[in-house]
Amino acid sequence: MELASLFAYLVSFLTFAGIYAVLAMGLNTQWGFTGQFNIGIAGFFAVGAYTSAILTTPESPAYLGGLGMPFAVGLVGATLASALIGLVIGRITAKLRTDYLAIATIGIAEMIRLFIKNEDWLTNGVRGIAGIERPFAGTPLDTPFGYLLVVVAFVVLVYFLLERAYASPWGRVLRAIRENEPATAAAGKSIARFRLQAFVLGAAIMGLGGGLYAHFFGFLSPEAFMPLYGTFLVWVMLIAGGSGNNRGAILGAVVVWGVWTLTELTTDLLPTEYATQAAALRVLLIGVLLQVILVTRPQGILPEKPPKLMATKHKD
Amino acid sequence: MIRIENVSKSFGGLQAVKDVSFEVAQGSITGLIGPNGAGKSTLFNIVAGLFPPTSGRIVLDGQDITGLPTHELFHRGLVRTFQIPHEFSQMTVRENLMVVPPDQSGENLFNSWLRWGQVRKEDARVLERVDEVLDFLEISHVADELAGNLSGGQKKLLDLGRTMMTDAKMVLLDEPGAGVNRTLLGKIREAIRRLNTERGYTFCLIEHDMDLISQLCDPVHVMANGELIASGPMEEIRQNAEVREAYLGGGASGQMGEDA
């Protein structure tokens, strides 16, 4: 491979990893901080992506809008729409815990995907939405590398906001809920309120990730939001990187996306008659990787670390 | 301080608590004893807001608090501990205590994003109180340890410590002595006594250790088969034939005597 295409490949790889890092941090808010078993990530991802697409593409007779708004409006819209859906789902599932919440969320994510697939007037159905532009059109920043910088900026922003949230009394209550709900209630905290807030924040971040994805890829179709890509990979990233640790979520996204792409490169070299089998084998490989990590490092590459307490002048 | 009025609770066909009434006087350390399955914990859970009674009322300071959820009772000064210690195991001992104080502005997410300085200042104050509590309980040496790594007895102390992080009026202790060695038990006993005399906490505690009950509690209420069968000072309770029978079954005696 010549240098220029290697660079292009690297930029594309890192952009994808960055978008996945945003999704993984969203999941970290729900699962890592609060212990909410959401396996409907793809649903929020899709809501964010489609919202931003509809808001920013030029007007089209085939689907709602597009409204031709700027990139920034698209991303804000993606974040808010996903937060709103998160609020509704969070309220409906308020009483559900662990595997019950998991079943409910995966069901809801599939409903969202099928809705997108079938409601042509809104989303153009299986034909999808094309022509979603990158920001800064007509400037030197309108390049894949420029977009990578945008994605990195959002990874940094989300990381900073979540680190502060984690170290704050708010994050402390979430972790207490994760560890022991009855004791958190006995400490006077409204479990329902904090759980809902964490769920909505996580959903909002996933929606942001969806918006970033839409403008990177330029084309959306319901197939992009199958559970394998939209949900399963994100879970593997968070668990591998270190649940509860934002840096772990980012590292996990880069590492797992790296393994995933490398296997793609490898299977592409195989003769065609083996290629479809190899594709299935990649999923198996990711599963095996997850097993190995869970057995050897159950807390992930970067285990959770309680935050440094804010007051520094201890007696000890 | 707290009045339990004709409280009953049934789960399906099982009547766990039958028409129990008693009062916990302000400033007292009231004991609640009875054999396993007597309904003590169920009654405790009703008072603590885990579930409402089938019938009857709970009155705290003249106000009906029947059916209020646990976190609201906390803000009215009623706090509890658990029979099995309920620590936040992946959090440090300090953090376990820092969770408790009410009205921390940093519990609002936007405050912790936008008014970080104020949040830090408040946390520093909370931390001072945490260190006082750890000193009081003599577990300062494990302050930055993850709570999950503590011994069973230390976890019991930590549970008790959480009740000291708020201005509690009434504390419900569910078997504070269960699974705790003698030395630590003495420490827990002294902590309860000091909280009672120095800070004016009112206690109601379930306990199976008769020594602890007789050293701390007056009066003592006895439950068996969901009913309240006796009330009074421990000396009287020991002599009560019905209580002996409840503990040991038909006609036996002795366990409730001096050796218990």
Explain this structure to me?
The complex is a heterodimer of chains A (about 325) and B (about 260). Residues about 310-315 of chain A have low confidence and may be disordered. Chain A has a domain at about 10-225. Chain A is mainly alpha-helical and about 325 residues long. Chain A is built from 12 helices and no strands. Chain A has helices at about 5-35, 40-55, 70-90, 100-120, 120-125, 145-165, 170-180, 180-185, 190-215, 225-240, 245-270, 270-295. Chain B has about 260 residues and is α/β, with parallel strands linked by helices. Chain B folds into 2 domains: about 1-85 and about 155-250, P-loop containing nucleotide triphosphate hydrolases (Rossmann fold, 3-Layer(aba) Sandwich); about 90-150, no CATH class. Helix content of chain B is about 40%, strand content about 20%. Chain B is built from 10 helices and 10 strands. Chain B has helices at about 40-45, 70-75, 95-100, 110-115, 115-135, 150-165, 180-200, 210-215, 235-240, 240-250, and strands at about 1-10, 15-25, 30-35, 55-60, 65, 80, 170-175, 200-205, 220-225, 225-230. In chain B, the strands form 2 sheets. A 6-stranded mixed β-sheet of chain B has the order 6-7-8-3-9-10, with helices on both faces. The model of chain B is unreliable at about 250-255 (pLDDT under 50). The chains are: A mainly alpha (about 325), B alpha/beta (about 260).
